[in-house]
Amino acid sequence: MTSLHTPSARMSRRALVGAGLAGAAAVPLASLHRAAAGGAPRGALAPAAGQETAASPAGWRTWLLASVDELRPAAPGAPSRAEIDEVVAAQADPSEATAAAIARWGTGPALIPWASMAGEVSAEFEISGMPQNRFMAIYHTALHDAVIAAWDAQVAHTRPSPGATSDRITPAPGVDPDRPSFPSEHAAVAGAAATVLAYLIPDAESGRFDALAAEAAESRIAAGDAFRSDVEAGLALGRAVGAKAVARAKGDGADAEWDPATMPTGPGFWRPTPPGFVETPFAPLAGAQRTWVMTGGDQFRPAPPPEYGSPAWKAELDMVLEFAANRSFEQERAALWWGTNSPAALVNEWTRELILRDGIDLPHTARILADVHVAIADSSVAVWDAKYTWWTSRPITEAPDLKTLLPTPPYPAYPSGYSAVMGAGATVVGHYFPEAANDMADRAWEAAASRGWAGVHYVIDDDIGLTMGRQVGRLVCSLAGADPVDGAA
C-alpha cells in the first residue's frame, strides 16, 4: 500500500518553490491551497466501527436504485437444519485456502478488498486517466448501492445470524453475531463488483470475477457469518445492482463517435505533440458524458484562456520555459513522482487508509468511496468539456525545443485534468476526515503544480483545473451534508 505520507507529500512547499525563477509561478496555486482545506464540520466524520450505525437506511442517498428497498428480497424463512450443519462442518476442519479466504475478504469493511482490487485491475489492464475515473465511479456507486440495499433488507427482515442461531457455531474474529445476516453484505458487494468488472474489463479471463465473488461470498459461511441462503440472496441482490450500473454505463455517452472535421485549426489550437504525434486527440466528446452530480459537463466551464499571442499568453509560455531552465531537484522529483502515478488510484488508496485507520463502518465506507469517485469522475467530465471547448495548444507546440520531464498527453492543454482530479478527491476526503484536510489540500496543490514543473501544462491550466475540481468536490460534499443521516438537518 502506498503510504498516506508519500515521499512527494513530505516535501515542504518552501523546498519545492523556493528555488530560482520556477518558484514564482507556483504562487497562484500556493495561495489557493488553504481554501479547500478549511471548514469541514466535525459532523462530517463517519462513525467508527464501534459506534452504532443509523437504525434504518431509509434516508440514505442511492446512486443507481430509485430507493433503498427497490430490490429488497422477500423475507426468508428460518435457516434449515442442513444450512446450520453446513456452517458447522465448514468450521470443523477449515483448509488453509478457506482460512486465507476468510482473512482476505473479512478483514475490515466488506468492500475494502474490492476497492483495492479496482486499482490493481486498472494497472493490469492499463486503464488510466479519464477512462479510469469513469470506471471508478461506476464501480464504487454500484458497491455503495449494494451495501445500502443489503443493509435495508437486514434491517427489514432481522434474520438472526448463524452465531445467534446455534451455539455450535463460532463466529470468526470481527463477526458480530448480533447483526442480522440476511442477505450477506459480503455477498452483495461481491455480486455487484463481479458484474461491473466483467462489463468494464471485457479482456479479462471469462469467469475470473465470478470466481472471486464466489470465494468472497462463501468464505462467510466458514466464518460463521452467513448461511447458504444469506449468501445466495446477497449475490443475487448484488448482481441486480451491478446490472443497473452496467445499464447506466452503456448509456452514459462514453462510446460516442467524434467527427474529425469539427477540430479547429490555426495558431494557438491543439496539434499533435511529440513523442507520439497522435493525430486523433483523446476522448474529444468526453465532456458530454452523463454526469453524476453536475447538471452537465459545462456547469463549471471556465472563462477562455489568455488570447493567443497576447502578453498574458506569452507570460504563461515564458513561465513554462523558466521552469524548464530552473527546476529545483525537489520540483523535478515531484513532477516525476506525480507524473508516474494515477491520481484516482492514489486518492482511492489514501481514502482506504483513512477508513481503516478510523475503523469506519461498512455503510459509511461505501458512501465515502462513492462520493470521492463521483467527484473525480464529474470533475474529469468538466475538464474535458473545457478542453474541447477551447482546444488550447500545449506548451511544446509553441516551443518545440522545450525539454519536458514527461510525455505530453495527446489532448488540449487547458485546463489540467490531473489537477482537477486531485482537487475534487482532496476536497471530498477533507470533508469526511477534517483532520486530514490540510494535508490533502497540500497534496492536491503539489500535484497540480507538478504539471507545470514537468512542462506539459501552462500554470493557468493547473490553477483552473484545481479550482474546477474543488468546485465539483464541494458540490458532492453539499449532497453529503443534506443526507438525513449523522444528525444532519
Q: How does this structure look, described?
A:
There is one protein chain. The chain is mainly α and 489 residues long. It has two domains: 13-44 and 266-482, Vanadium-containing Chloroperoxidase, domain 2 (Orthogonal Bundle), CATH 1.10.606.20; 81-250, Vanadium-containing Chloroperoxidase, domain 2 (Orthogonal Bundle). The protein is 57% helix and 0% strand. It has helices at residues 13-17, 22-25, 27-37, 81-92, 96-106, 112-124, 129-157, 162-165, 185-200, 208-222, 228-250, 311-326, 329-339, 343-358, 362-390, 395-398, 417-432, 437-454, 459-482. Helix 7 (129-157) runs antiparallel to helix 11. The radius of gyration is 24 Å and the shape is elongated. It starts with 12 loop residues before the first helix and ends in a 7-residue tail after the last helix. Residues 1-44 and 46-52 have low confidence and may be disordered.
